[in-house]
Amino acid sequence: MGRVAMHQWLGGARGQTPLRPAGCRMGLHKDREYSLRDEAMDDFHTRRMILEFLRKHSLAVIATSHRNGTPEAAVIDFSVRDDLEAVFSAFKETRKFDNIAERPGVAFVVGWNDNVTVQYEGEATRVPAAEIEEYQEAYLDSVPTAREFIERGAVMFKATPRWIRYSDFNKEPPEQIVIQF
Length: 181
Description:
By secondary structure, this protein is α+β, with helices and mostly antiparallel strands. The chain has helices spanning 40-55, 95-102, 132-142, 147-151; strands at 3-7, 24-29, 32-37, 59-65, 71-80, 86-90, 105-111, 116-126, 155-168, 175-180.
């Protein structure tokens, strides 16, 4: 399954010796110590927390890459499935459609209003015809305003995650949780 790395400040003021829970490796990040903890029982709860956060949002910024390597970004409507697969649509005339057709790697940023974000990297593919009704129904339940795009011929895509980082900048130091698939 996935690997969960939880980043958490374990020390006090500079110069103090931080506590080191069993099974943790210590490192430095921005002049602060953090722990990298790999625990299977955290995996389910971490994924659930990220899923709940993503489901509170319906807009994301998607980044794709043009064939010449130029990055391109756009705001999209999206929904997320229980397995953290992101679902979105794009018209055939858009840059993102062409970019994904040639280079399926995508990145999303979700959140940002309340100093909490999710960064998401994965591979996007068109939803197969045999699954289109299932995906459209779930997508439109989450993003009813997208019905107009679907009716006008937008193509459904799904992105399978390979790396996700949840960041809460309201905490001092910021809490960051990374999942690698």
